[in-house]
Amino acid sequence: MVEFKNVSYYYNAGTPEQVRATKKLSFTIGEGEFVALVGHNGSGKSTVARLMNGLLVPQRGEVLVNGVSTSDNKKIFDVRKTVGVVFQNPDNQMIASIIEDDIAFGPENLGVPPSEIRERVDWALEAVGMSEHKRGTPFRLSGGQKQRIAIAGMLAIKPKVLVLDESTAMLDPIGREEVLKTAMELREKEGVSIVLITHFMEEAIKADKIIVLNGGAKVMEGGREILSMSEELDEIGLDAPFAARIARRLREKGVRDLDDGVYEIEELVKKLVNIE
Ligand code: ADP
Ligand code: MG
Asked: What is the pLDDT of residues 82-138, one digit of tens each?
């Protein structure tokens, strides 16, 4: 669905303030795939999110969305329809004072006929479990609920790829859980690809693929075994999941039969209980 081919993006290109935010990045996001994109602050994650839906266009390399280059001006609507990005702060993403109008805004902009818009709004609210708030105002909602409304706004566009750029960072654990659960259900029911941008390594545990960025470059790519590499992650300012760190310390202290593949507290407890 998305392919980055040697993508370099420069802010303030050609000026003394030029910043290279991504560095020859190449990766793919498959249909229905759940990809976690991780990296510390300033590693280029949000730039990648903006490159994915054509908000930014790379100076070097190419971004293909469903086979269409984001550099192709004539097809930018196709790109925007395919990749929906939800950013960190839901307050900056609310436009209308009534929730259903807010959600209708995206499809209206893309020229979807009114009758279909109504259907999509209902479907999107249902998908995020917020149907009963349809005629309410977004401003009184909790952070988690606002973020679910922001996701519904993206869903109404019917994207094939949903990018969540630290969309859970400002939420409490329950709100975070709500948003992730919504994303996973969408993937299951609608086959939407999910790109989860996060610095909470715990959230990456269930991903099909983890891509680690540092200084705008891809430094690791693979399955969840990456999360056991606490030393390598440490070096680039990332914490391995809590359980993986504890397991590692225990191994160092001589606890045997505790293998590398421990990522979640429940797993760790189960293994420890079974050790002689
Ligand atoms: P992340 O989302 O991982 O924190 P960003 O993609 O926001 O990283 O930033 C990557 C790099 O690009 C950083 O060095 C950042 O300072 C720089 N940057 C981001 N946005 C801008 C901008 N609008 N103008 C200039 N530099 C920017
Ligand atoms: Mg960011």
From this structure: 999 988 876 666 778 899 999 999 899 888 999 999 999 998 998 888 999 999 998
Residue 164 to residue 112: CA distance in whole angstroms = 24
Task: Check if 46 has its Cβ closer than 6 Å to any atom of ligand 1.
Answer: yes
For the Cβ of 42 lying below 6 angstroms from any atom of ligand 1, the answer is yes
Q: Tell which one of 11, 86, 87 to mutate to probe ligand 1, the residue whose CB is within 8 A of the most ligand atoms.
A: 11
CA–centroid distance, 250 to ligand 2, in Å, is 34
CB of 236 within 6 A of ligand 1: the answer is: no
Using CA atoms, how far apart are residues 70 and 56, in angstroms rounded to an integer?
A: 8
Task: Give the alpha-carbon dihedral of 242, 246, 249, 255, to 10 degrees.
Answer: -160
Q: For residue range 130-183, what is the model confidence (pLDDT) as tens digits?
A: 999 999 998 888 888 888 898 889 889 989 999 999 988 777 788 778 788 888
CA separation for the pair 208, 205 (Å, rounded): 9
Residue 79: C-alpha distances to residues 3, 5, 17, 267 (Å): 12, 16, 29, 41
pTM, full prediction = 0.90
Coil/strand/helix, residue 52: helix
**DSSP 8-state assignment for residue 233:** H
CB 22 within 8 A of CB 9: yes
Q: What percentage of the chain's residues is helix, strand, coil (to nearest 5)?
A: 45, 20, 35
Ligand 1 pocket member 39 (CB < 6 A): yes
Ligand 2 centroid, distance to 213 Cα (angstroms):
12
Please report, in angstroms and rounded to a whole number, the separation of the first and last CA atoms in the chain.
48
Q: Is the CB of 20 under 6 A from ligand 1?
A: no
